[in-house]
Every structure is written in C-alpha cells, then in structure tokens.
Design a protein that fits this description.
TIM Barrel, 25% helix, 6-stranded antiparallel β-sheet, 521 residues, 25% strand, alpha/beta, 9-stranded parallel β-sheet
Length: 521
C-alpha cells in the first residue's frame, strides 16, 4: 500500500469536508480558535464611550494583555489624539460621531475602539445658563496633573496597567539638580543631570517647574544651631554676600540665576523662588534676605525669559498667616505671579485626603487679606507620608480623592510627591498610578464643582456625572467595606478606579473609601 505524507492526508481531509471552499474562511472556526488561545493579545480601551463639546478633550487609556510590549498606536476618525491617549475633538457645527482606536504595536491586527460624540456649541439661553455648573467650577486641563520625581529609573512613568502616565508637568527639586549640585564652585557649573531631565520631560511633552534652593558651601555659612537638613550644613543659609537686612551685592545667587535662565530660556516654564523657607531646615536666613534674593531672581527671569512665570516660595497651610504673611509684608508679593503652597495635612491629619480642604482655607484667607485673589493658586508638593497608609486599595483611593478635591476647589495645578517614591507609597507601576490615570480620564476636558459632604459621604459634580465616596469606609487585604448610596435616576453607569464601567441597577450603589464615577451612559 502506498504511504502518503501525514500533512497531505490532513490537507485532503480539509479540502473534502463539507462547506469548504478555497479562499473562504470559516468565521466560526477562526473565532473559536482565537478564543481558545490563552496567549492571544487583547486590547481594551476605556472609557468605551464618551461625549465632548466641540474642540473638547477626553482622556482614554488602553489595557494590553498577554504581551510584554503594552504600547499602542492611537488614531481617531476625526479630531486628534496624542500618544498618551488624550483626545481632542474637532470643531463641529452639528453632532458628530467619532471612533477612537488603540492598536497593539506588537500585533497590529489587535485593536479596540471607543465611540465619541462631539456636540456643537449650545446657544445661550436662560435655561442653558441655569443648567451650567456654578461659577466656582473649572475646566480641567492635562497640565493640572503634575508630579515630582527622585530619579528616572523607569521612564516614561507608567501606571499599574503599563500605560504611560497622564502628566502635563514635572517639578524638579529632589532630582540632584539643586543650586549646590549644579554650581560646585563659584562660576563652575555641571549641567549634565539637568540636561538629562529636561530632555526626558520634553520627550513626554511635559512642561518643567524648577524649584530654587540649597545654598552651596562655597557661597554660604553654617547657621547658628546647625538647623539645615540632610542637604548639608550650609544648604539653608543665606549667601554670605547678602546682609541680614537684605542689603549687599547678592552676586553669588544672582550669577547662578543668570547663568541658569540664559541656558534654559524657553525650556523651563516656571520657577519656584525657594523650597519651604517656613522651615529653618531649608531657610535659616532672615525674611529681608530671602525677599531681596527673590527680587533679584524675578528681575533676572523676567528680563531674560519673559514667558516664564514665577511661583512664590512654598509655605504650608498653617504658616500662610505667619511666614508667608511676613514675606508679603516685607515686599515679597511683587516677586511672584503664582501663589504656591504645600497643602498636605498636618502630621496627624494628612492620612485623610480631605485635610487638604483646611489647608486650602488657610491659603485663601491669606490671599484675601493681602489682596492676592487674582493670582492662581498651586500646590506643587503633596502626598501620603511613610506609615500613614499602607493598604494598596486605600493608597489608590487616597490618590484619587486628593486629585478630585484639588480640582474641585479650582487649583490651577498640583504635583504629587513623588511619583517614584519607594513602594508602597509611590505611583509607579501600581494601583495608585492606575487610579491617577483613571481620574485624569474623568476630569480632563470637563468642569467640576467643589466637593460637598453630607456626613461622611462626599459628592463632586462634573458636567457629565457625579463622583462619590464614603470617608468612613476602609480597605484591607483586597476587601473594601461599603455603604449604600441612593443615586439620582439620571445615572445609568458606574466606573471604578481601574476604569471598569458597569451598569447600575436598583436605587442604590455601594460606595466606599475609593471614589466611583456615576454617568448617564
């Protein structure tokens, strides 16, 4: 008997099976085979539906499974979308349906889509005005989302779903780029580390805030009592060429600022005049000295790089009425364009994100007193501290609530300290980073009103939904306690902090430590 190749026998069997035709694929077989493959790449875009006004924005994220390369290529049938998933709708005169697609870079045959409805501008009417958010609401931009870093071991920064983090800005402070680390001797500069940071930030389209501080040994002296912190015994001192009454040449500091701003003109958008001078661990000089240095820095920055903006030295909530008030009283207000403070809670209250609201009240009381209410307010350093929280779910909830509360009061910008902090406190590659990106998707391109509390339940109104959480609840080892919240019947969907959207049913929804977003669709 003649022997045939096993491969030939298989081909003969396929060709002669009923329903087979050359050039035709059995869709059911393909679907079954793909479903049976545990290693098939899967792409999922969240949110899967969105609505934006004409030229409005919405943040999308893509989760890619079963491959080490989780990068995607974004595209949109109309409008534009960035490489981080930030979509901007076209200018339209009628309602327009748009498809947003994320395609796996590993396997371009694998993709996921989301539907976006872009609506035309609405005519102004009494009814329309009544339906808009209150005057205290504000539209959130990507620039609201900023972070401090200690290093660039993982770059670009990513969340727990391996997506590039939503970041519009970076603050440089504890990054080996302080004054003493750059100007190692009078007129001797090492720009290498700062050049690297700037290149990395620019590659991710982040703008840059540089914080001034850390007097070099060659320019300073050891203050009485040696109060300076870990940066060195001279770091908190005033330069030796500035007298206690603010007179003197101030040449050491002015030369540094001049060289710095000339080198990075057009590359650094913001300058903070000194880090936390309300603590003598960072500033042990007099108010007159730091006001003088601020005057000199402001004059140099404004003449050399007029587009750059200047932040006030960073106080804290409780020291706004003491240290900051003294700085302004001594003439310091003319030095800055932005009121900046570090708005963590106190050591005993910071474990509760809502402690921020008390700190913010301290700031607004001072700006009202000193007639500074027309200036923007920033918080360029906040976040959880070691041992205040340790549960991953609670840390993710903390990040989300911190962002939402700051957006609600209308802060123009906030920066978390730090994205890459050691586990479990940072956001790099974990649930907290995912919560950050999901909340960014909720907020960017939308308006939000100040959050309000009824007992332990906080609600924050968006133009397209409602964010809600319960501060009395907690999480432990993967389980979070909840209460029942009776939601308005206009809402049909809920989205959690990993971006999963599900349908609402009944008249109540479970709420807990971690915020959820309720939407109509």
């Amino acid at each position: 008997m003649r022997k045939y190749s096993p491969i030939l026998l298989i081909l003969i069997a396929i060709v002669f099976r009923p329903g087979f035709s050359l050039g035709q694929t059995n869709a059911n077989e393909i679907s079954s085979t793909a479903g049976a493959s545990a290693s098939a790449i899967v792409v999922k875009v969240t949110p899967d539906t969105a609505a934006v006004p004409s030229s409005g924005t919405v943040q999308f994220t893509a989760l890619v499974k079963n491959t080490a390369n989780v990068g995607v290529a974004w595209s949109a049938s109309a409008g534009t979308i960035s490489n981080t998933g930030l979509y901007r709708g076209p200018k339209v005169s009628k309602e327009t349906a748009v498809t947003v697609t994320a395609t796996s870079r590993t396997d371009p045959s694998k993709s996921s889509q989301a539907s976006v409805i872009v609506s035309p501008p609405q005519p102004t009417s009494a009814d329309a005005l009544a339906a808009t958010p209150s005057s205290s609401s504000t539209t959130i931009k990507e620039s609201f989302f900023g972070a401090d870093f200690n290093g660039f071991g993982t770059w670009p920064p990513t969340d727990g779903q391996h997506q590039t983090a939503t970041l519009g800005g970076i603050r440089l402070w504890d990054d080996h780029v302080k004054w003493a680390q750059i100007e190692t001797a009078a007129g001797v500069y090492d720009w290498s580390e700062l050049d690297t940071w700037i290149a990395k930030a620019q590659a991710q389209k982040m703008d840059i805030l540089y914080t001034i501080g850390d007097t070099p040994k060659w320019a300073g002296s050891i203050p009485k009592g040696s109060p300076c912190g870990p940066n060195g015994a001279y770091s908190c001192s005033a330069p030796t060429d500035v007298k206690t009454d603010g007179t003197g040449t101030d040449k050491h500091f002015s030369d540094f600022i001049t060289a710095f701003v000339k080198r990075y003109k057009g590359q650094i958008a913001y300058y903070e005049l000194w880090n936390e001078p309300d603590c003598n661990c960072f500033w042990a000089g007099t108010t007159a000295q730091i006001v003088r240095m601020g005057q000199d820095a402001a004059a140099i920055i404004r003449s050399t790089d007029p587009a750059a903006k200047i932040l006030s030295p960073s106080a804290h909530g409780p020291t706004m009425k003491t240290w900051f008030d003294g700085y302004v009283a001594a003439g310091g207000a003319a030095n800055f364009d932005i009121v900046n403070a570090h708005l963590r809670g106190t050591n005993t209250t910071n474990k509760d994100p809502e402690a921020f609201l008390t700190m913010y009240d301290d700031v607004t009381a001072e700006t009202a007193k000193r007639n500074l209410t027309k200036l923007p307010i920033w918080d360029d350093e906040h976040g959880i501290k070691k041992n205040q929280l340790t549960d991953p779910d609670e840390l993710a909830g903390y990040v989300a609530r911190s962002l939402i509360l700051r957006a609600g009061v209308g802060l123009q910008r906030q920066y978390v300290y730090t994205w890459d902090q050691n586990a479990p406190y940072g956001l790099q590659g974990n649930e907290s980073g995912t919560a950050w990106d999901v909340v960014a998707g909720w907020l960017i391109g939308h308006t939000i009103s100040p959050c309000t509390a009824e007992g332990t339940v906080y609600t924050c109104s968006l133009d397209n939904g409602l964010i809600v959480w319960d501060t009395s609840k907690s999480c432990s080892r993967g389980t979070c306690s909840t209460s029942k919240y009776t939601y308005p019947t206009t809402y049909k969907k809920q989205t959690d902090l990993i971006g999963t959207k599900t349908s609402l049913s009944g008249s109540t929804v479970p709420i807990g430590y971690k915020p959820i977003l309720l939407t109509a669709k």
